[in-house]
């Protein structure tokens, strides 16, 4: 995924991740279970840095999209010291998951993708820790 995020437009990347998602029958897992597994994966591969928020969010979204129809991956941005910084996160049931250290100060949701990979304006999506 690290290379694909630079080669594909975001909507195409999300659709690619959605297309191969396990079916509800094949993979029923709790949100917490998926989050713990992805945290362990990124801790092991990122030398404790936690990995890239887009990569982490797409992996969590992939495993939750079929078993949780209200799963969304959300892309937002904020300005810090004059720089525009992006962030990605996943919501389930309108609640941001696995974002304990991310402040929502100034973070504006821009676009979200539903569990089918369809993009829509993220005006109603919740921010991490809001």
Which features would summarize this protein structure in a list?
five-stranded antiparallel beta sheet; 130 residues; globular; alpha+beta
Please, could you describe this protein's structure?
With about 130 residues, the protein is of the alpha+beta class. It has one domain (about 5-120). The protein has helices at about 5, 10-20, 30-45, 55-65, and strands spanning about 70-80, 85-90, 95, 110-115, 120. It has a 5-stranded antiparallel sheet with strand order 3-2-1-4-5, covered by helices on one side. Helix 3 runs antiparallel to helix 4. The longest helix has 15 residues, at about 30-45. The termini are far apart.
